[in-house]
Protein: Bifunctional lysine-specific demethylase and histidyl-hydroxylase
Amino acid sequence: MDSFYRKPLKISSEKKSGKKDDGRAINPSTATIHPLNVKKERVDSISIPGPFIGSDTESTHSSTPGRKTSKVSKNNGCVKKVKKSLNNKRNLKTKSKNALQPGSSTKKKLKVSEKSSIEEGRETFAWIIHPVPIDDYFSTTWEKRPLHICREDPSYYKALITTAKLDAILREHNVEFTKNLDITSYQNEQRETHNPDGRALPAQVWEAYNEGCSIRMLNPQAFNEHVFALCAVLQEFFGCMVGANLYLTPPGTQGFAPHYDDIEAFVIQLEGKKHWRLYSPREPNEELPRFSSENLLEKDIGKPIMDVVLEAGDLLYFPRGTIHQANALPDSHSFHITVSCYQKNSWGDFLLKLIPAALEAALEEDVEFRRGLPQDYLQYMGVAHCENDSVIINRKRTEFISKLKSLTQKLFSHAPVDAAADQMGKDFIRDALPPDLKDGSKLYTD
Structure:
């Protein structure tokens, strides 16, 4: 409903780099991507505008990203990676009497970060939504309205992941269709998934892309250390699971039907351009929903409240329940990552943990909850009696409901609020990524 949303925000951020860069790793003038056309990126030194990034070298031995030791130096608010010598790497890996050990008194011991993981997460989130101050964002935008940040800096998010790295993931890891990757299309208001069985081989994926299908990777954090680090540090700040999806869309195509999701969405445009249209929830019961919608028809979603083209370096945020659809422009592919959070992390979800436990405690501790129901309550309660005009029945109904209200008010005195919080915390721990440990912290782990 329009009353639910405040007016969407669009913010322009000053360009921070004079370097000419269109943010593209593939040729936008053609719909063709072939592994031979994807440049292999080997970067010895890279400026990374965020506190969460680790090594630019990815592990090729397992599907779990591993961080490699590297020195960092601050430069104009960025973290700049400095290439290490091979000897330094060998020294860190070699166990000897001079090797650094937990509890060692050597002055050369690696320094453990003095910042808490929550502080690091806050800094990372501040980088994502810059130039909007975090406090302003949560007071005026979070769960209230969409936000578009037009950054005019194609390289701002470039260090996260590129199409070249996506190609490397397909070649070096066991990426499976449906479990890790979907091939989709949307034409004539029909959304289809074209997943074969088994491993998503690069040749299959790029052939589907060349035929106009979109590529969605469901859990890139399992294959790319930068995305892993981003999600791992943000989950510390948000206090809930943070996930990510990658979307690669050919020029002039759309991969998904209009729909809404059950997550807070941060769309980070990495390469190319994408045309987004956002729509208000159709009904109040679709505001901040607990479940995502089915595919929707154009005739059922009304007029967009925001119509915008994202370019590399831009950010688009929208609350859960926001109906959305997006298509790549005819002259450019699109590559973006959607970072998501707050799935089933509402007051209602907390109460789903609390109320059953409170009722169990009340039944054990308070005899009023164990007293029997009136023997004739089915003669005046239930749908068949809800509109009865009988004075006697209405009086009995009023007394019955009054008793329930009294017990409900007493119920909170038995509510184990902290235990319910612990249950929510257990769910978070179960779903969360492992912490993204820094080099110094690793010395104190097995």
In short: The domain at 9-47+113-345 is CATH 2.60.120.650 (Jelly Rolls). Residues 25 and 163 are 6 Å apart (CA to CA). The chain has two domains: 9-47+113-345, 352-415.
